[in-house]
Amino acid sequence: MLDKDLVRSFYLKGYNAVEIAKKVSSNTETVRKCIQRNFGNLKLKHEIAVLQRKEELKATNYEANRYMSDKAFVLKNRSIYKTLPNGDIVINKEVAPVVTWDTPRRLVNENKCIV
After folding, report:
1. Exposed, middle or buried, 73 (CB in 10 Å: 0-12/13-18/19+)?
2. Are 103 and 81 in contact, with CB atoms under 8 Å apart?
3. Which keywords does UniProt give here (predicted)?
4. In 3-state terms, what secondary structure has residue 92?
């Protein structure tokens, strides 16, 4: 038996019949017919939720794809770093004693001479 309240909650969150069927472990056509028979009056709310969900996914994907490399970050924020004699760039603890978890701690010089 299909739980109408569960189908209704997923429908109002913007999920389509195929996605709802996967979540409630039911047949797609059963879910589609349940939506047609019971939730025809909620079509406008569903469409709004679909657009909102689509925008959220788009924003999330955009943020996930915006990645700044360690080198680019160090070049943009030179004031908190100091250069060691061997060419490595490390955080200057006197200037920035506390930094966030995603701040690069060290940038190794690739062109240093190893003798």
Report:
1. middle
2. no
3. DNA-binding
4. coil
Give 42's DSSP letter.
G
- Kind and range of the H or E element at 103? none
Task: Give the residues across from 107 on adjacent strands.
Answer: 89
- Give the burial class of 55: count Cβ atoms within 10 A of its Cβ; 0-12 exposed, 13-18 middle, 19 or more buried: exposed
111, exposed or middle or buried, with CB in 10 Å at 0-12, 13-18, 19+? Answer: exposed
d(CA 44, CA 73) in angstroms, rounded, equals 45
Distance (Å, whole) CA 32 – CA 66: 38
Query: Which two three-digit tokens encode residue 64?
Result: 């996930």
Task: List C-alpha distances in Å: 58 to 49, 53, 54, 64, 102.
Answer: 14, 9, 6, 10, 23
- 10 Å Cβ neighbour count for 7? 23
Question: What backbone torsions phi and psi does residue 4 show, to the nearest 5 degrees?
Answer: -65, -35
**Kind of pairing between the strands at 89-91 and 81-83:** antiparallel
